[in-house]
TrEMBL record, chains A, B:
Family: Belongs to the ArgJ family.
Protein name from the UniProt record: Arginine biosynthesis bifunctional protein ArgJ
Designated gene of the protein: argJ
Site label Involved in the stabilization of negative charge on the oxyanion by the formation of the oxyanion hole, positions: T127, G128
Reactions it catalyzes: N(2)-acetyl-L-ornithine + L-glutamate = N-acetyl-L-glutamate + L-ornithine; L-glutamate + acetyl-CoA = N-acetyl-L-glutamate + CoA + H(+)
A biological process term (GO) from this entry: L-arginine biosynthetic process
InterPro entries found in the cross-reference section: Arg_biosynth_ArgJ (IPR002813), ArgJ-like_dom_sf (IPR016117), ArgJ_beta_C (IPR042195)
Keyword Transferase: yes
Amino acids binding substrate: T164, K190, T201, E282, N405, S410
Gene3D superfamilies: ArgJ beta chain, C-terminal domain (3.10.20.340), L-amino peptidase D-ALA esterase/amidase (3.60.70.12)
Primary localisation category: cytoplasm
GO cellular component, as recorded: cytoplasm
């Protein structure tokens, strides 16, 4: 089953600025896929600080556990040496028992030997089928060639190599002027692919030539992640492999500690990539933004937003272009966060649908239906309680999602 | 779109024993449906105690709020007078603002006048579309006729009148001998109907001729509900109208306080009805029992079980007859309850699939695939941590679910 490019995909892969201090290479190792690249190596210069955010799954993969242990231990030594990231697609090396750890060790040792970077600074990720042994020998056999091919301009080939069943490669960039110097940010992601025999997994790698200490980098990344990647959902199923890493090479010689322009630029890149993941959601035909305001607090607003975004009945209504606001009332009611039926108001785009515990007297079904015909739909909820707000993003639930996940055997 | 009877339906509606002290009638009021009954009235003799469990939704319907208030207030007066339950299908009287309360008041006042039962002991429920005004006049116009038609043997007509998009009427019964006397339990339910323009809603009414004080009745009902109706899920979406009421007429003169035979018989009836709701789940072609053992505690076991049961990726794998145990690992990992990847074991029926953090050496894909071809599938999880256990029930997620909820406009 060849998948068509998502109807919600951007026109083309963006032109990402080179990030001084980081080089990329991709290769075809034949882990699972044939006739395409499936391994990427990124090598960073000494001075690079690295932060990461990973899946909270209790059954997370061997590479995730290895990255988390290394980042936790590296807080002190941080940028003394270079660093490397190796990612393969086609096999997630998850639920592979102790064999999974062996595979990670074999790969990181080989990368360390060939790149002359300490093994404690070599990170890996694997994405694809769960529970099958990773043929790490095929990857190890390519590391010399990858090392020889490293190129500052090859980030696009890296973006393609990490795809599994994505229908398009995902990239985003930003530049920001700080004190007359230009700081650049380039990021790539994969996620929510189609025809996956297992759950969608998400990998994100972002690089910048800014200078930032690891603790500050981690704090910034975690904070923005809560408003971007932690606010998207395709089907409420959490991967065992989700990984997001941010590498700051410092090559620009611009220290961005406390710089709000840099933080905003980074958030732009992360928001862009997170939206691209939703736009490539399995079977997606609609991109949905859910804005919740007036909640008791920001946490409650996010709980309501995600309850709406994860509701199969809301998602099928969106697929059917049905302005079925009763299902939104249902999803708010079940979320567990505070709600008062009679203070709630609901709009589709700028069309006020319901207020004061019932349908608005100004609402016309034809207006709601017109909003639902759009490819990009905004649902606004005002809880009418206090000042808490949050925005979350999702896609619709279609026959294609069932086809991808039920009709074709893994 | 006429819906076929669910492939998982029982052969026929069971022969329910009459319960002395309660009479039923059904009528066609034309609330929404034409050419079928859509209102049922049950009237109980003085001496009847009543307990109830209702949706926890923050946007619950006017009838639910009214029932909850009356049951809370009636704790003392309990069985001094008779009691009545009136249920309509076709309109849920939910998110109808203050008009919803007016409709409830008009109906309960009329029932009280005509049956000579205090309004505080008249309960109602409504199930169907959300957000449309309930044409309560059509219901009120039928109450005299309903009262005149009351019949102890008419519980089957009541079961049919409360159906919305159910594909079959649901009933279950049990009798138990206590001290040489027979105590009977008869119950009816509706839920998880198809082609519903709004979410599935569940209503359950159970009647017994046993004698039990209201507090004891409520405690028993709540406790069993946690192991039966609170352990089923079709699509993780919680209705604004879910109501479960248990009425004990006392006509058998058998006090069942502390009687474990009665409690077991009641649990059998409630389990049967809850399974019938799942078997009529929208688009369901497979009935799935998920047995979780070895969890840190019973609560954790239920959290894991419901995480598996609600996972779209697990449910689509079941629909596709795919023994995709990787998705079960994923669902356990994301649940938030304690799990250790390397102590976990997973079986489909009696086929051990995975253990010790990886696929079992004895597992053959053909064996797993054969289990998944069955209509009734059992998934067993041993967490390997402690003694917590729980069983939950669900159905698969199919194209028909999408068709019901997306392809047809409300």
């Amino acid at each position: 089953m060849a998948m068509l490019r998502s109807p919600l995909a951007p026109d083309h892969f963006p032109d990402l600025p080179d990030i001084a201090g980081v080089r990329f290479a991709a290769a075809a190792a034949g882990v699972k896929y044939q006739d395409r690249t499936d391994v990427m190596l990124a090598v960073m210069d000494p001075g690079t600080t690295i932060a990461g955010v990973f899946t909270k799954s209790a059954t997370r993969s061997a590479p995730v556990l290895d990255c988390q242990a290394k980042l936790a231990a590296a807080a002190d030594t941080a940028s003394a040496s270079g660093a490397a990231i190796l990612v393969n697609s086609g096999n997630s090396n998850a639920f592979t028992g102790h064999h999974g750890q062996t595979s990670v060790a074999e790969i990181t040792r080989s990368v360390a030997d060939i790149t002359n970077i300490p093994e404690a600074r070599v990170f890996t990720a694997s994405t694809g089928v769960i529970g099958e042994p990773l043929p790490h020998d095929r990857i190890v056999a390519k590391i010399s060639a990858l090392n020889n091919a490293l190129d500052t301009s090859a980030i696009d080939s890296a973006a393609h190599a990490i795809m599994t069943t994505d229908t398009f490669a995902k990239g985003a960039m930003a530049t920001v002027d700080i004190g007359g110097k230009t700081v650049s940010i380039s990021g790539i992601a994969k996620g929510s692919g189609m025809i996956a025999p297992d759950m969608a997994t998400m990998l994100v790698y972002i690089f910048t030539d800014a200078t930032l200490a690891q603790n500050d980098l981690q704090q910034l990344l975690s904070s923005i992640c809560d408003r971007t990647f932690n606010c998207i959902t395709v089907d409420s199923d959490t991967s065992t492999s989700d990984s997001l890493m941010l590498c700051a090479t410092g090559a620009s010689d611009v220290d961005v500690a406390g710089n709000s322009d840099f933080a905003m630029a980074l958030e732009t890149v992360m928001l862009d990539l997170s939206h691209q993941v939703v736009r490539d959601g399995e079977g997606a035909t609609k991109f949905v933004e859910i804005q919740v305001s007036g909640a008791m607090n920001d946490h409650d607003a996010k709980v309501h937003g995600l309850s709406i975004a994860n509701s199969p009945l809301v998602k099928t209504a969106v697929a059917g272009e049905d302005p079925n606001w009763g299902r939104i009332v249902m999803a708010i009611g079940k979320s567990g966060a505070a709600a008062d039926r009679d203070r709630l108001s609901i709009s589709f785009g700028d069309v006020l649908v319901a207020e004061k515990g019932w349908v608005s007297p100004t609402y016309k079904e034809a207006d709601g239906a017109a909003e639902m015909k759009k490819s990009n739909i905004t649902i606004k909820i005002d809880m009418g309680l206090a000042d808490g707000s949050a925005t979350v993003w999702t896609c619709d639930l279609t026959h294609q999602y069932i086809s991808i996940n039920a009709d074709y055997r893994s």
